[in-house]
From TrEMBL:
Source organism per UniProt: Chryseobacterium luteum
Lineage summary: Bacteria, Pseudomonadati, Bacteroidota, Flavobacteriia, Flavobacteriales
Protein name as annotated: Ketosteroid isomerase
Keyword Isomerase in record: yes
InterPro entries cross-referenced by the UniProt entry: NTF2-like_dom_sf, SnoaL-like
UniProt key word Transferase: no
Length: 115
């Protein structure tokens, strides 16, 4: 299975709200960098982030996925429900790095869409 397929398979679990199955696709020391916002180190911090920000499963609209070696770059849109129950809309560009078929690192550029 190539890294793009692994990523899409893992993200299908996120879309269903099955975050533990998604985390099984991550290395234990996975690192997520949300540029200009925060850095998450390890599965526990990613798990806590998902619990806080994924009040309901996010809705992804993937526009493009490009694989090059251990990297998969994905662009698209994401909708997240906030604590008041309203959806917030974002554009994103994610650069995922894989090690031995697992997600080792994410560098995410996320920009809120303005109405």
């Amino acid at each position: 299975m190539n890294n793009t397929t692994i990523l899409h398979t893992a993200n299908a679990y996120v879309s269903k709200g099955d975050y533990e199955s998604f985390l099984a696709y991550c290395t234990s020391d996975t690192k997520w960098v949300f540029v200009g916002e925060r850095i998450l180190n390890g599965k526990e911090e990613v798990r806590a982030y998902m619990k806080e920000f994924y009040i309901e499963p996010p809705v992804f609209d993937v526009e493009l996925a490009i694989e090059d070696g251990d990297f998969v770059t994905v662009t698209g849109n994401i909708r997240l429900k906030n604590k008041t129950g309203k959806y917030e809309h974002f554009n994103y560009c994610d650069i995922w790095r894989f090690e031995n078929g697992k997600i080792a690192e994410l560098k995410a550029f996320v920009i809120e869409k303005k109405p």
